[in-house]
Amino acid sequence: MTLAREILHGAAIGVGVADCADDLDVIARPGVAAALWQRRVDPDWQAWINGLAPETLPQLRVILRPGRVRDAVSDACDVAGLDASAARDWLIEDIGGLADRFAGLMRARFLRLRLDVIETDACRRFHIDAVTARLICTYRGTGTQYGISVDGEEPRRVFTTPTGAPLVLRGTLWPGDPPSGLLHRSPPIERSGETRLLLVLDPVDDPEEAI
Known about the structure:
Elements: E1 2-4, E2 15-18, E3 34-37, H1 43-51, E4 60-64, H2 69-80, H3 86-106, E5 110-118, E6 133-140, E7 145-148, E8 159-160, E9 167-170, E10 182-185, E11 196-204, H4 207-210
Parallel strand pairs: 2-3
Antiparallel strand pairs: 1-2, 3-9, 4-5, 5-11, 6-9, 6-11, 7-8, 7-10
């Protein structure tokens, strides 16, 4: 793993660049505002997900234990009418694997999982989330954008997370350190014809309080 103290590999200052899922624990290091796993998804799989009709993309919003994630995503694929295939199996297993890793990293008993199909400008303003930390992975479409804010202004340089690359961001509830100047947003895509498939995971200790 590498801590980007300068602009490195397309990441901003204060972003830990992970070589594998286990390296996402760089988020716990002092001075690290985000951890980016710059993996490359198989191009054949990417072509498959990009070629699906938007209405067949799975959607899901639920709070559950990490061990239930795979079944929940599989059920969402069934509801969307997504046919069984090796590509579908990879998506389910990848989301389940990221959920396991993130829950372990955050010591979370439960996760809030969102699998959103986005065709508009959702959350287009730069911000920091009111959570301890959040994992975001864009499986289809333009990735999450982020940058360093100076005096609360919008970032002067904006970085775009590669499609398929998981990004873990500290939120305002991260213990110890004050909120960093690293802000993020969803890319503006309205009227572009683009459809994004976005995974978001948040740690949850008590599902009753989270509802």
